[in-house]
Write the structure tokens for this entry.
Amino acid sequence: MNRETLGCFCYSKSMIKLIILDIGGVYLKGHAQTFFEQLQSVANTAIDQTTFFNHLNTTDNIELSLGHFAPTATDGTTAELISIWQHTWTIDQEMYQLVQNLKPHYTIVALSNSEKRNSDYYQSQGWYGQFDATFLSHVTKLYKPNQAAYQQVISHMGVAPDEAIFIDDTPKNIIGAAAVGIPGILFTSPDECCKQLEKFGISTYL
């Protein structure tokens, strides 16, 4: 059988039991640039993405954050921004296939700094369905890179830190995981993710 037939074949010679995945930027692909360009146009001012996301993490509500950064927006404009925000991310089929092939061998969970509206949409699309558990900040009130966010995951799943591996596209979140003893992979692409997993004894190919 060739790679097209197999998709992504996976097996393990490692002690890893738990794989922890970020959602946006890893399991889902896309970027927020279109949203921010439109938001800045409406607000008529430059808006720093980090500042916006920090505010969103405190509210867990896109409407409240939009009200803060674009207080003069009309209801129609706000609805348009919310629609753009909601459809910023789409499932990465390569990562979906990777997770599908890892599932018989590992426990796989999601750990995300989340927002309720988008999370509800992802749930309705069935995008969380193949995870054994989801740890979403708008529910847990624990945010990466806070060490408590990672500790909650490994405690709930009953594994030691070195029995888990964390995959995220943000360096500070990888550092946060490392602080509690969880090794990490900085995600750049599905192919590179597989190569990095192989270094942990988890053999994959796409």
